[in-house]
Amino acid sequence: MGALLHQEVRGICVLAPATGVAQYLYDDFARWLNTQGFHALTFDYEGMGLSVNGHVKDSKSDKLSWGKYDCPAVLAFVKENFQGLKVVWVGHSVGGHMIGFMGHNPDIHQVITVGCGNGLPVYAHPLPLLSFPMTI
Predict the structure, then answer these.
(1) What gap in Å lies between CA 104 and CA 39, rounded to an integer?
(2) pLDDT tens digit sequence for 63-104
(3) What whole-number distance in Å separates Cα of residue 24 and Cα of residue 14?
(4) Using an 8 Å Cβ cutoff, are 67 and 101 in contact?
(5) Within a domain: 135
(6) Cα dist. 38→26, 41, 42, 61, 79 in Å?
(7) What is the pTM for the complete model shown?
(8) Per the structure, how many domains does the chain have?
(9) Domain assignment of residue 123, yes or no
(10) Residue 27 above 90 pLDDT?
(11) Is residue 67 part of a domain?
């Protein structure tokens, strides 16, 4: 956070992790965001990284619970502790999909996804895509 002491804070980036990726693996990116004027918040979903209680195989959490409980709790923390700042959701893989699981989030100003699929099977198909001329 030292870089932010000498420049205007541009917002806070919430770094929503990929499945199985512990928050500490985003530390370098978070530090770089600091040099660009952003606070950065990393977290682990329940059952991952520092949020494991016991062995990960015994965790009852899943992607739906991450979107229903974990991500809204992170946003509530951000809203309470970083009032007035632009909130940027940076979703890596499943972290990008969490936007859809959480429902309406007017407190998020911008969403950036990295390595996040779009869910359309046509893009995963090994055959070339067919295109047809479109008339307007």
Answers:
(1) 23
(2) 888 999 999 999 999 999 999 999 999 999 999 999 988 988
(3) 14
(4) yes
(5) no
(6) 14, 10, 13, 30, 15
(7) 0.80
(8) 1
(9) no
(10) yes
(11) yes
Candidates 71, 109, 112, 108; CA nearest to 93 is: 112
Question: What is the chain's alpha carbon radius of gyration, rounded to the nearest angstrom?
Answer: 18
134 inside domain: no
The angle at the Cα of 30, spanning 118 to 113, to the nearest 5 degrees, equals 10
Number of other CB atoms surrounding residue 123 within 10 Å: 9
Q: Which two tokens stand for residue 98?
A: 């969490």
- Beta bridge mates, 112: 90
CATH of residue 89's domain is 3.40.50.1820
What range does the domain containing 61 cover? 2-118
65: buried, middle or exposed (CB in 10 Å: 19+, 13-18, 0-12)? Answer: middle
SS3 116: coil
42 neighbors 116 (Cβ within 8 angstroms)? no
Amino acid present at 5: L
Q: Which of 132, 92, 133, 82 is nearest to 112 (CA)?
A: 92
Tokens 């479109």 -> residue: 134
